[in-house]
Design brief:
Elements: E1 2-5, H1 7-18, E2 23-29, E3 32-38, E4 44-51, E5 57-59, E6 64-69, H2 70-77, E7 84-89, E8 92-97, E9 100-105, E10 124-129, H3 130-139, E11 146-152, E12 155-161, E13 166-172, E14 178-180, E15 185-190, H4 191-198, E16 205-210, E17 216-222, E18 227-233
Antiparallel strand pairs: 1-5, 1-7, 2-3, 2-6, 3-4, 4-18, 7-8, 8-9, 10-14, 10-16, 11-12, 11-15, 12-13, 16-17, 17-18
Length: 238
Amino acid sequence: MRMKISAKNMKEIVEILKALVDETKIELDEEGMKIKAIDPGHVAMATVELSREGFVEYEVNEKNVIGIDLNKIIDFLKNINEDIEIIVDGNKATLNAGYLSKTMALLDPGNITVPMIKNLELPNKVVLETKELRAGIRAGENVTDNMMIQLSPEGLRLIAKGEEDKTELFLPKEILKELECKSEAKSTYPMDYLLAITKPISSENITVNLDTDRPMKIEFDICDGKGKVNYLLAPRIE
């Protein structure tokens, strides 16, 4: 099994996964790559998909499942800007980029936890610029451990309230890309996960689905539209 991927695309995928896990199981077939991951605390889970068009070259003729230590990949990527050739042979993977090569042992995919992700139907949807969501979350980083997210027909509100301080970002419907609010929704989510999940997102726009005291779904494109990510983040219920 052999493939070649740009350093940009590989770094983007690894950074997204590292927000949740250190080890991951990767499924590859003729259509492309699919990864499901869940953090050790079972608070957040993600599905990452990249079509074969997201690779520079892609030679996979049957379904393969491999386990990867992401920290080993990160070490290799630190000073790489060239396309990366990946050759999988048995329980070894070889990475080639320019004059640099690294061979590493693969993990047993059977020992890596993979979430059972169901199709979660949430009644409310908002599409907004990623930088707006990220700014609202970062504003409350040092205020509290949790952030309340509210959605109404008027717009989206992010509130971080501590014992003494408070930040609030309100994005009216006029500046949102899209807003579908069938019923007002309000949920609280862990700040550290919100920060980690949104930090590596390079997509200009992001889609958020939510409902009161239910998981929040975050969706966005990756690798210049050749792939997509779907996050589910559990709420904090008091």
